[in-house]
Design a protein that fits this description.
two-stranded antiparallel sheet; about 20% strand; Rossmann fold; alpha/beta
Length: about 90
């Protein structure tokens, strides 16, 4: 069947409970993320934690994953900004 890196060209990963718990990575997560990245795949991280900015989350992830800049993260707050802006301009 092959590894994730062989089967997919992109991964969308939830963070808490999938990639890490607290400040500790879950078994296999860093190696899988690095494998996909090294194979040319895109890895994006999603979280519904609205208190975290992409920069805060990136700092946590970068402690155990080689390449994960803030542009790889989408928070629910970040995702809602365009929606709120559209609502405000149409009302």
């Amino acid at each position: 069947m092959g590894s994730l890196a062989e089967r997919y060209d992109a991964l969308l990963l939830d963070l808490d409970g999938v990639v890490y718990r607290g400040d500790r990575p879950l078994d296999g997560a860093p190696a899988t993320i690095d494998e996909v990245s090294q194979a040319g795949g895109r890895v994006s991280f999603l979280t519904n934690n609205y208190t975290l900015t992409p920069e805060i989350v990136a700092a946590t992830i970068e402690s155990f994953v080689r390449s994960a800049g803030p542009d790889a993260f989408l928070t629910c707050g970040h995702a809602n900004v365009p929606l709120v802006a559209r609502q405000a301009s149409s009302g």
